[in-house]
Specification:
Blueprint: H1 23-30, E1 36-40, H2 47-60, E2 65-69, H3 70-73, H4 85-104, E3 108-112, H5 118-128, E4 133-138, H6 142-148, H7 153-158, E5 180-182, H8 189-203, H9 206-215
Parallel strand pairs: 1-3, 1-4, 2-3, 4-5
The chain binds 3'-phosphate-adenosine-5'-phosphate sulfate and adenosine-5'-diphosphate.
Domain APS kinase: 34-182
Keywords: ATP-binding, Kinase, Nucleotide-binding, Phosphoprotein, Transferase
Family: Belongs to the APS kinase family.
Length: 218
Amino acid sequence: MGEVSIQAGVPANVFRTGGRIRLVDRQRLFGHASMTIWLTGLSGAGKSTIAYDLEARLVGGGFSAVVLDGDNLRHGINRNLGFTEEDRRENLRRAAEVARLMNDAGLIVICSCISPLRSDREMARDIVGERRFAEVYISTPLAVCEGRDCKGLYAKARSGQIAHFTGVSAPYEAPEQAALALDTSALSVDECVSQLFGMALHCCSPAAMEEVSHEYHI
Ligand SMILES: Nc1ncnc2c1ncn2[C@@H]1O[C@H](COP(=O)(O)OS(=O)(=O)O)[C@@H](OP(=O)(O)O)[C@H]1O
Ligand SMILES: Nc1ncnc2c1ncn2[C@@H]1O[C@H](COP(=O)(O)OP(=O)(O)O)[C@@H](O)[C@H]1O
């Protein structure tokens, strides 16, 4: 095997290519602008449930939308990563890069990853681009998430069978300036999805399309 190196910065001697189809052409095709709705919150907060319901509502309404779920990414593109801070950062970097590619292709992306650290969410915002990134805090309190314990992971974390478990033995930093905060102990799934659907309609409307198409030439 040849020499393999992992590069952190912009690679030397590698040049970007581009075709004739611009983002604005793809937006015309889909009839809406693209964006990334980044759902962050504890395990059991409701991220996946909300993400898939929002996806169904958007697709049912004629939008092209897709979910990038942390659990699923960790079965494929991120299967070599664990839950140390370093691995989570790489997990989220890849998720954001994929979201960006999908946004460039015209899709609305709903990303549901715990993404516990502010610095990592800022990295995701930088990768996707400020103008088409909306951070949404699924703010369900730890006690409620732990009470649900849908996958039995909190019990395992408390008994020491899982290390670095978010909220138990690893940190979760709440967003300070989320576009929206949704506490699923107070709001139904439908109420959460309706609020997000409204936000997506606003951000991906034809007016937003004009604005965004000036900014992102690909
Ligand atoms: N140690 C530890 N901490 C947190 N979560 C854990 C851990 N081990 C496994 N799991 C399961 O992995 C899911 C979280 O993956 P993410 O990619 O969203 O995590 S992160 O954004 O990189 O922090 C998470 O999914 P959700 O419950 O849907 O959030 C868990 O099912
Ligand atoms: N308003 C709500 N929004 C989302 N999930 C809710 C809500 N109320 C109760 N739940 C329940 O909470 C659990 C959340 O699990 P999940 O969506 O897998 O969370 P996460 O992806 O954040 O780990 C599900 O069993 C879901 O039915």
